[in-house]
Amino acid sequence: MPAQDRKQPTAGKPPVVNIKKPQTFTLANGLKVMVVENHKLPKVTFNLTIDTPPFAEGDKKGVDELCSNLIGNGSTKISKEDFNEEVDFMGANMSFSSGSAHASALSKFAKRTLELLSYGALAPNFTQEELDKEKAKLIEGLRSQEKSVSAIAGRVVNALAYGKNHPLGEFIIENSLSNITLEDVIKNYQTHFVPQNAYLAIVGDIKFEEIKPLVEQLFGSWKKTSNNDITYPDPKNVANIQINFVDVPNAVQSDISVVNSYRLKMNDKDFFPTVIASYILGGGFNSYLNMNLREAHGWTYGASSNIGAGKHVTSIRSTSAVKNNVTDSAVVEFIKEIKKIRTEKVTTEALESAKAGYIGRFVMKAEKPESVARYALNTEIEELPADFYENYIKTINAVTKEDVIAAANKYFLLDNSRIIIVGKGKEVIPALEKLNIPIFYFDKYANPVDKPVFE
């Protein structure tokens, strides 16, 4: 067919997604319950979520993670062995953390599954023996990652972006673990695993009028506590772009992160433009960062950007691990691509591709029980409009090139970003100094230090 006769295929109609609305009720203790009946398959899922605001743990950092590892590991109402045997017999899946509990099973086992879920979540059996085991595991993990560039980077990036005293900037060390007692774990559970911040989403082959009295019976005695939520000042971004360097002499690659903090709620009008902008910058294989650092230059196995959103302060982190000898060049290319998303309109092809990717993933997930539960929870927790997910596709399709560039300028704060590099200073510092970007030095625990002396 001659080239002049070829036509771009016309886009079809957007898919129609039917997202079921939950039936809801609230217990006297504050637990909010959402039930979505779906009788297509004989399955049911239960998702209990505790919407706990971030909290600092101070010199006992790790107590919440230990609580997470211990909860569900036995109950005062049933032995650990009998509990696990019953779950296996029913073919159910069950998991717990310090902020959630999840279970799924055949609907004929729905009642017993919810009972066991309530036993594990509301009557945990914390023991010194199990605590000692979990402490030992965490300490072993810390020691095994002592010289890991990626582990050091993960710790230092958050500590510098949020501050070491902020809940999102704290990190676990051996000393903080050694400070934690069994009483600390129990207190952590009693303080934060509370019904007034809890949501229970039930989706599947159940009837509302049958499950409601069971929930009231199993969760009605869960005691409400007084709120002790602490607010923390938002972290401040740096006044000017700078490099924060951590010297790891054994590093064979440099871990580079460009990071800044901000607030972005899911109900903000620029939520979707920001998500699309992040995807185009570093969310997919064909993103700016990946096509530059991996495909054009061959410096890395991948480059990406991860954006946060929600009620609390969050950050965007653009990152890659590159060869030592191109660390300075990679920094230049990071800056170039972030400037590009802030100053140049994206192509029609890139914008439509990003939209299609999000819509495709949404359509594939929309009717899955776990997604229905998540949408119901998000609507409540993030205070979203009731039609947020019904309008999801329409809202994404409405994002324009101008919206993307405006969002990138608002949230991708290049001039106020930290370029955090964990690598072998002896090999990369001389070239980095030629970039004329101020360099500040830190140890692997985010403490400021003098510039290392390289022999």
From TrEMBL:
Which segments constitute the Peptidase M16 N-terminal domain?
33-165
Checking SUPFAM superfamilies in the record gives:
LuxS/MPP-like metallohydrolase (SSF63411)
The UniProt record lists the Peptidase M16 C-terminal domain at 179-357
Tell me which InterPro entries the record gives. Answer: Metalloenz_LuxS/M16, MPP/UQCRC_Complex, Pept_M16_N, Peptidase_M16_C
Protein name as catalogued: Peptidase M16
Q: Which organism is this entry from?
A: Flavobacterium pokkalii
Lineage of the species this protein comes from = Bacteria, Pseudomonadati, Bacteroidota, Flavobacteriia, Flavobacteriales
